[in-house]
Amino acid sequence: MLGCGGLDQADPTPNPQATGATSTTGSSTLPVGDTGDASLDTGTGMVDSDASDAGDEESGDTDTPMPAAWVPSLVDYGLHCKLISDETLEDPTANATHTRFNLRGTDLGIPLQIGETLHLFFGDTTGYRDIWPFGEDPDAVAFANADAVADDPTVLCDALDVYVTPDVPSVAAGTDPSVLRDFAAGAMAAPEGQMLSDYIGDPAGPFPQIPGTFEVPSGAMTIGDAVYLTWAGQTEMVPRPRMTLSYLVRWDPPRELPDYQIVRPIDALDQGALGGHFMQIAPVVRDDAVYAFGTGDFRYSGIYLARIPADAIETGAGTEVFDPDAGTWVDPSILMPAERAAIVPLLESDGVGELSVQWVEDPGVYVMLYQRELHDDAGTIVDNRVVLRTATAPEGPWSDAVTVIDMADPEFREAHCCGPDACPGDQILHCAVAGLYGTYLLPRPVATMDGDDTVLELAFVASTWNPYNVVLFGADLRLEPSFD
Q1: For residue 183, is it within any domain?
Q2: Within a domain: 457
Q3: Of the candidates 152, 120, 161, which has an alpha carbon nearest to the alpha carbon of residue 445?
Q4: From CA 315, how far away is CA 197, in angstroms rounded?
Q5: Which of 132, 276, 376, 441 stands the most exposed, by the fewest C-beta atoms within 10 Å?
Q6: Per-residue confidence (pLDDT) for residue 253, from 0 to 100
Q7: How many domains does the chain have?
Q8: What integer pLDDT is reported at residue 16 of this predicted model?
């Protein structure tokens, strides 16, 4: 199975295209927490007169001015737990997904609170017994109580539920009576008059309505009572795995199964409506608008910004793209395809695929988290880390990148690289052939004051690829106010 990690799960041979191939920078890379990689930052910090006024909003005492920016620094980070498998792919965690849901491996885990429930939208998922072998790879959805997770993120370590099919007992019960239920694979319905094949390029097994390998969710949001997800698909494997189409789906109640209605295409890598810059999309709903942070060519892209009126999400009418060079919002529909493609990134110039962005009401800051994977001309990974940025407005200025995890850092490798046969304790991945990716912030971080500073207690999931798993991290972020 060629999953989002970029290597064939059945073939442990190192691949220079794999997200986790050992960094060649070794000890010369920045230590964990160092913010000094601004030389790789292409953010312009330009905001036009029509930009969001998020930085002018006040909370609490109206006599206290809001800072123009929050300067972030990492206090500490640590692993909470593994969600799906433990020492090996066949070895369950306290969530017992192997036998409770016939689920032994997955990735991603895009979080969204819907009512009182926190959902995790997983990517390519594989079964434990008799269903969904590697190579078919549908998408599963997990959930837990949102308040409980906000109080203690480690609730996800042993209280994770997964949407299941109606089969009781599981279809695998005859083979293995310990398997109680089967996870439900996400299925799509095409828009009226259109074909599923217009959206799903690689179906899961013989099911044309179920997205398969590398056809995965990238973001999720609620607008009123409606639930929407952005999806990345029509994947091509040559010259490298990458998604070539993004589209919007709606999840209608009752939500007993992950059955999605495709609403419309969003962008395409080649001559797309948004310049090919929005294959992976992290949406943030705020001020009656959806701010869409996107990346194009998978892990060879910078980060771009668009906005859509929230009440026009299903039509896309009024969509604008931010042009950092001009410091203005532009209507992409009036541009030629080459002009749309030529819009420069808001942040970074290379190396980004999946990303996560959240607006934190108190203290009033956008927090962005993503993996950045840089390559040399031969395609070998030369720098691979998880980084974080903050801003008070979507257009910026954004902070310098704060390294949360450097996958070449000796302390990280000592703590988290697996041995040759298994991954006991805090060991989570075979570092010679795999690395962390798909890092997504959980909602509702805890904010506490420390003098003039704010400390955010963040939690985020990350994917490990080999073994094929999702893990939960925590990180404390210090935000120093800047009034310049």
Answers
A1: no
A2: yes
A3: 152
A4: 21
A5: 376
A6: 84
A7: 1
A8: 27
